[in-house]
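Forwarding these from the shared drive since the link keeps breaking.
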Amino acid sequence: MGKLYTRGGDGGFTYTPVLGRVEKDHPLVEFYGALDEANSMIGLARGLLREQTQEYEEDLRYLQELLYRIGFSLTRMRVSEEDVKRLEEIVDRHYSQPLQKFILPTGPAGVAALHAARSQVRRAERRLVALRKAGVSVDDLLIAVMNRMSDSLFAIAVAASRRLGFEPEELNV
């Protein structure tokens, strides 16, 4: 590999494997950026939670790797129905009761980071839908995976909060 910097993006353009060279504010670049933000936040949550429990490490690592595969799936599908099933298993393992009330996105630092990651995954999902509206070929399976991923992060956040001795704060509306 060469140097970290290429100077290729200094003029406000970047290369994408899907559309070639595009401006850095293109919806595709926005989608990739949202994936990167979510992945970084999951990494932060992993680091914070690791100090208190290893219970969520495997699931969170899987979610990070899946975010990369989602990004690459715009050129060649790298996610499958098996990913949807695994995400549903994560949800069911960590949060099996029906949701009765809204839960405030708070708790210990690692849990709060999971809630932030969940909202960033939702943003990436919205960017993916915008890409489809802009004419980029987006498989419905990618949207389903993104949708289940945010559910997985929510379920892990609630479970981790309880595991760490903090009852999730319910909102009475």
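-- next protein --
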Amino acid sequence: MKNYAILAVLMFATAFAHAVPTRGIRSPVDVVVNTMGEYEERWYPEENMINKSGLLTPFIDGVTDFTDYVYTAPLHEGWDDYSWLSAYIYSGELIFDMGREYRIWNFMMWNGGTGISASPAAFTVTTSRTLDFSEATVVGTFTGHQRGYVGTEYWITPSVGRYVKLTIDGNFGNPCCVAIGEVAFDAELLHPIPEPSSVTLAGIGLTALGAMAVARRLRERRRDA
């Protein structure tokens, strides 16, 4: 019976060892607020900021390590077609939905097209657990740049939230719009979700432990009889 106990413990350990990584680079799942509009929804939609369409170096959500990815100096296409362009509005808010609550450690943004001069010149990053931002945390205020199409890491204060707001204040003089190529976050799951194989292993471990308990009770009853 001792061997069964060891087996059950090993199965639990293996299940946890194969859990889905809890931290990695992630794209938001949706743009839920955009007060700056879209220059042409058909060609330059807000979804271009979160769909990885213009990334020349792809990543896997929740699997690729954020820091390792930054070190590759990942590039974004310089064409407008892979960017979001605002509708002749140069200041406003973008709110991204991460899909669930995360501990958000860091932020990365790629410039959009239109000759770089449409890149955000100044912006603030705020996180919140709720869409109304009634309890919000300002995690950083930054000056943008015009250094081409390599992803830029902006060091923010770690916080917990589901929604991330960019408050943009102007561009670098482009009369058309503000342009962003892509955004991504270094995000950590607060409650890791095990892989299906891990769930199976854990279930086998529970079954083994249950069988051991039943067998022990039967032995005790025989002794008492």
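The chain has three helices and nine strands. Confidence is low (pLDDT under 50) at residues 4-19, 201-206.

- D.
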